[in-house]
Amino acid sequence: MLDSRIIDLSFNKVFLKIVLGEEVPVTISTLKLVDLELANSLTQLQKIASESGDEPTDKLSRKIAAIEKVKVEDLALDFTIPGYDIELRPGGRDIAVTSENVYEYIEEVLDAIIGKGVQVQAKAFKEGFSKVFPVTDLRAFTADELVMLFGNSDEDWTIETLSEAVKADHGFNVESRAIRFLLGVMSEFDGPTRRAFLQFITGSPKLPIGGFKGLNPPLTVVRKPHEAPLTADDYLPSVMTCVNYLKLPEYSTKEMMKEKLRVAIQEGVGSFHLS
């Protein structure tokens, strides 16, 4: 925190609120921050349970209703945590969820996932964490701020942001074709590739606070020369991790650059050479 470096740990905001002793509503809205798919399923279950049973009048509506109309009993649910063989109550796996007890089921699922069901784990975390740093001192931060400090905040990888943050030098400028290729490739990375790329370039899988603009020194891209009879396409990019310095051959196509970066990122893990 003192040097603005991100800790590579991912904590959910709801869990951090529980750890900090903040009040966490045990509702489907809160569950959406933890497990969106399950929250949507419980919302749909509520909808099924609350159907009025009024019959549609026109022919088309009756056909649609016949397809969509499902009873709670048809779902073959029991009183266990969805996806786990953990009973919500004693003998829960032998208790069917019906229209009469469906709201009890929803309440018990919510309580198990974001209520009393995680209190023991949160207590153990607080005790372990406090052996290194007092958890109570973390209350100076909000849960959102802690999420950011622990490296779970969204990062901006748009071309606009990258173009403002990346420094082109020694053979390249911001208008160079290779720089345009690179920004395009970077903006298309998925989550795991972003982490691997950052590890390759900076030695850390996470950006500092402030994103790319927070890198110090800034990410610098320079032209990597080639020697005849070889061409740029025969070389892999290389880096000087300690100064966030990327040596990039002037590849013939964007696709070639993307492939060479992929190989360098995957095969260069743990490699170290004097430059």
From TrEMBL:
InterPro entries noted in UniProt: HECT_dom, Hect_E3_ubiquitin_ligase, HECTD1/TRIP12-like
Name of a matching Pfam family: HECT
Annotated active site: 242 (glycyl thioester intermediate)
UniProt keyword Transferase present: yes
SUPFAM superfamilies: Hect, E3 ligase catalytic domain (SSF56204)
Top-level taxon in the UniProt lineage: Eukaryota
GO biological process: proteasome-mediated ubiquitin-dependent protein catabolic process; protein polyubiquitination
Bilayer-crossing regions: none
GO molecular function: ubiquitin protein ligase activity
Protein name, per record: HECT domain-containing protein
Native source organism of the sequence: Candolleomyces eurysporus
